[in-house]
Amino acid sequence: MDTPNEAVVEVDSNEAQFDLEAIFETQYERIARVIVRVIRDPGRAEELAVEVFLKWSRNPSAHGSNAEGWLYRTAARMALDELRRQARRNRYDRLLTLIRRPLTPEELHSAAQERDRVRAVLGAMRPRQAELLLLRSHGLSYDELASTLDLNPASVGTFLSRAQQVFRKEYVEKYGEE
Amino acid sequence: MEKNNEINVGRWVDDRLATLTPPGNWHPNMAAGIAHLNTGRRAGSLWRRSWVWVPVTAAAICICAFAVPATSVFAQRCFSACVAETKVVGKVIWNSLSGSKRPLIGVARMGERRMAPDFTLLDASGKPVGLSDFRGQVVLLNFWATWCDPCRVEIPWFVEFQQSYRDDGFAILGVSLDQDGWKSVKPYIEKQKVNYRVMVGGDEIAQVYDGLESLPTTLLIDRIGRIAVTHVGLVERKTYEEELKALLAER
Asked: Could you give the ipTM of this predicted complex?
């Protein structure tokens, strides 16, 4: 009585495994690239990228035709979450170092680098807007953005320009004009 | 002009975001990724499986404990202790939620009580009994009938209440609404050895007490003659006891 059921389960999990590995092989590099642009540490970015695929495999509702969009969105979200976590940790570390010793000129210089500024601004924005900007700069078209982020295709442009305004405002507030 | 500005902002933001590039010539390590993926999968499924086993093991232990004669008494005791504890905790939570101003759910607050309409009816020996005669006592006024099954459940409780609380300033009045009056009520109260005052009433008293649409209807009246509790239908004996104790404690 139990045997056929077990067989079905076995087949299902094999199929899922096959799906996961196939999608992993085709998408891993792209997904890892989305993350590595945001996270400074490539090793950590790879870990997070694998985590995205594991999440996907545990979430059957994401297995449809829009799997790619789901992966992109999750990657962007996880990368930004990690960015915020890092920012918190940095604040805490900086607080400790302030007590211990002042920052060296090299540290100040590296903290002032453009890339870090952009990351800091993205981390401070609302997650949805940051995801939109990140995926747009990754080369996704308006239609792709709409299906990836569950937006109305007609309003992607509006959302995008609003997010850009917010980015600029945030950047200028933090670091001044240019 | 505004459009231009928007385009500029867009380009400015794009330029900034374009600085986010992967380290030069970077490629993720596919083999390491697949290895990591497979470890993650195994860990995930193991984790899921272990969570499934927790309740299953707990249920199996319970069943064994109940089935084996040596441990079944202990298991039953544990179970009943758990049930009792849950009830106590539930009661405490309920009391704290419903507010300390109102210690019992059924008892109306002093200011919300209305006077019980007075009446005078004849008892079995033909003597008039008025509600106002019992001012200063807590009165349990029970409307009932001999044909009403739930009423017959309550009457032995009332007999016991009358015995235990008589000396605390407590009286029970039974008003029967039987159509044929004393003819069926008298033999019944004699048989049940009813030790409190029983009268027979009709439509007039039913009207005064809001129609009395269902029986039993039982009112608890405080020492000043105000209705503190109204129960329509059968209520647990414990509820009556708690409520009348609360009323007897009022001064």
From this structure: 0.73
Question: Which two tokens mark A67?
Answer: 């799997």
| Closest CA relative to residue A28, chosen from A10, A13, A6, A48 | A48
Tell me the C-alpha distance between A71 and A19, whole Å: 14
Each residue's pLDDT tens digit in chain A (178 positions)? 444 444 444 444 455 555 788 888 888 988 998 898 888 788 888 999 999 998 888 887 878 778 888 899 999 999 999 988 888 887 777 677 666 555 566 655 654 478 888 888 888 899 899 999 989 888 888 988 998 888 898 999 999 999 999 999 999 888 877 5
Domain positions in chain A: 2-175
Domains along chain B with CATH numbers: 30-98 (no CATH), 110-249 (3.40.30.10)
Burial B52-63 (b: 16+ CB within 10 A, else e): eeeeeeeeeeee
Determine whether the interchain pair A133/B21 forms a contact, defined as Cβ–Cβ distance below 8 Å. no
Q: Which of B13, B26, B40 sits opposite A50 (nearest CB)?
A: B40
| Contact call for A137 and B14, based on CB within 8 A | yes
The Cα of B45 is separated from the nearest Cα of chain A by a number of Å equal to 9
Element at B181 (helix H, strand E): none
A103 contacts chain B (CB < 8 A) = no
Say whether B22 and A36 touch across the interface (CB within 8 A).
Answer: yes
